[in-house]
Amino acid sequence: MSNFSIGSLRLFKRGRNRSRRWVILGIVLMVTMTTGFIVWPMSPAILDLRNPRSLGVISLMEHWRQGDVIVLVRHAERCDRSSNACLGPADGITRLGSTQSQQLGRSYAGWGLGNTDIMHSPITRTAQTAQFMFDAPSVSQQWLADCGKTMRDDVLSHKQARRNLILVTHSGCISDFEKQTGFKHAAASEYDSSLFVWVTPHGKINVLGIANMPDWPTTPSVSLNR
Fold it and tell me: 135 by DSSP, 3-state: which?
């Protein structure tokens, strides 16, 4: 065989080996990315509450009627981190935040709060948010400010059978809860966001999704408890 033929054969083999390496590398990257999404799920699904016919919203409404829902609500816009006018003390919320909280509260009132327990962190911004959201009384709870490694268990321990539970708390606390329920890399919650959780009769937690202010209908829905 000529030197030219031998050289061509060697170049061909090198090219084929190089192609194989790229294919193998591509497969490894795909497996790594896929595994990463499985092992490290991102944020809970967004619930578009403006679309009452979506499967996610239908499921949420049914669980709400049955009193099997926990909601973690982040407080309204912080006064000390905004250029908007403050409602009062610097550790409270802004006037814009109070208006948005009232709007959010009307949406929950439209769902019906007759079988709902409401609790809030004792920090000023969460207490004010709860005050503007609800006409019903809200109970101050220190654990909703402390959070940490027991957040999931604390949330579950305050859920009464056949009664929904709304918890007005902080973004760090919501993050703790998300991490402890399988969402270790969830994005930080927005002001006045609502994380919806379904608790089964056996006490198992299922995260249904999250709704931010733009995900709510502009006109509150009619009561679900008619």
Answer: coil
